[in-house]
């Protein structure tokens, strides 16, 4: 205990003892029978005497009962208004002497560098113009120390100081010695035979302190994180068939010097189980369980996996609900046979309790309108209550990225068959001002400035203004999207842009494009989306070099394009940002000729398939086919297909396709097909670094051109490359490096080995 607190505690003890002695001393046997004629209050400054008398258990005319005097003393102390209280009986007068606690004038923090004053102010309960008490100060000191513990500083010392002011006021200053971070030196496991310590360290979130862990705080001790680690271990073992697994203890021991922790998990792995049998049973009339078997993820002889059981329950609930059973309840019955080390799983599908949504309560949205939240719900007030649809609605709200926290809970309604759905959200900033810098071997140095508001006026509208400047491209664009146009589930918006692309290196000209677009897209099914778009743009081919191909020179000038497009997208990926499983199909058609100078029809089909080979290793296969045909006119060079660079690694941008053999200019083609096979995997570095490697093979070609001439080189042979690469999502922005070697190519192709890109926003 700090000396100052020891002194304060002793002082308080002495004062209390003295006060009690003062109160009890006058209560002699003869005084107990005396009667109190009046009550005199001394020492009060802010508090009225009558207020103090109201706290007493005695009144004028009452006998001077020692027990009542003692109760009065305790009551006055209990108010927290006084630093000292003394009661005594003198003649027929009860004299109450008080020393009032001071009032806090100001609260300040000194010595804190790692935590801001605002962070600490939120933790303390005392406020300026409130009464100072030692008890409240002690409580606030404990809260502040807890804050520093949560931030990994167990050696932090907090010493409260008071500065006396006039009129019985004080300034309260918390003097803080933050001390060093209390790191986790070592994580050990006891009782693990099936998995090594190293493998289990990769499972838990807490990490051992290393010199290179300057980007993470997971190497500090946090009791809450340690509890979460227990849950992560449990999930890991249950996923791998150890149904009897338990974490017997998780202990963090502080080293004698108080600067580091040693964490030890004691586990009981138990036996590993296989699946004995899997059944789907139901009492619902007309439901054929044989049609549900494809949704069951486990089969006999598979290793037991609790996560697949949960996934199957969700899939069955969704499917049966969609088949017209809104109150369905799916429960897995797990029967464990320890003798044969097998588990039988029976999914029981029954009619659940009939309940309806009485109302949906939304709290915490100060800026976002209620309707923006309600329109993401897959059920409405009065609908049958469905837990799966509530979960889907919660996920949709989180995907908006408008909130730091989204919690959806349920409570009983006014009747037994009614349920109240409560939505608690904590809003986050949705405005962005970004400045980006980077470098790409394809575009050279680049920078951009963007201003974006993703939740304009709390209506969920998206407005963006961007400026991009790179070695080969300058872009200015404005876009606006209304996610629920005319209160329908239709995202509509417009784009206005001005783009200038320097194609001097590959084709000896500069392309300038100015235009705008109107677009709308909507969901046909939960996975199928249809988009419509109209684009009006003016393309200019200019700054054509003196040695440019004659086919490029023929394209010089301006051309107006009026294009109607539609896109069908069928997306079954688990994530749009970092897919690990599932597939994507997309088909796009463009028709130019409803006005303007360009007339063509362009079709493009794309597909991607992702398969998790293990938890961290993901295989993918992607491909695209495109064809454009002129409608009475040749296809303009701006609308042809080009291949190379990011779309065909191992070849330079526009490095593949028809080419002028004299000028060595890329001319683009009307037919494109390309694909890629890739395997992504971790590089063995801590997960915090988010570094992944890949091996890949790209293949494809571009061919066919409306122009003809002996100098045109055009073959439809397939080109291919193999390579390796890595991606690091660094604190400074994503860094991507690929090295590829062309293994199938033509002599006139333009190849490249390395491709690098780096970018950041701040």
List keywords for this structure.
16-stranded antiparallel β-barrel; 18% helix; 44% strand; disordered N terminus
What does this structure look like?
The two termini are 45 Å apart. Strands 16-17-18-19-20-21-22-23-24-25-26-28-29-31-32-33 form a 16-stranded antiparallel β-barrel. It is α+β, with helices and mostly antiparallel strands.
Outline the secondary-structure elements.
Blueprint: H1 3-24, H2 29-32, E1 38-42, H3 49-55, H4 66-78, E2 82-90, E3 93-100, E4 103-110, H5 117-121, H6 134-150, E5 157-165, E6 169-177, E7 183-190, H7 197-201, H8 223-239, E8 246-254, E9 260-268, E10 274-282, H9 306-322, E11 328-337, E12 342-351, E13 356-363, H10 370-374, H11 387-400, E14 403-412, E15 418-427, E16 431-440, E17 444-456, E18 461-470, E19 473-482, E20 490-502, H12 504-507, E21 510-523, E22 528-542, H13 550-553, E23 557-571, E24 582-596, E25 600-612, E26 618-630, E27 659-660, E28 671-682, E29 691-703, E30 712-713, E31 719-730, E32 733-744, E33 754-761
Helix pairs in contact: 1-4
Strand order of the largest sheet: 16-17-18-19-20-21-22-23-24-25-26-28-29-31-32-33
What about the largest sheet?
Answer: 16 strands, antiparallel, barrel
**Estimated share of beta-strand residues:** 35-45%
The unreliable regions are 1-32
Helix proportion = 10-25%
Structural class: alpha+beta
DSSP summary, beta strand count? 33
SS field, number of helical segments: 13
Q: What would the principal axes of the Cα set say about the shape?
A: elongated
| Termini Cα gap | 45 Å
| Radius of gyration, taken over Cα atoms and rounded to an integer in Å | 37 Å
Mean pLDDT: 85
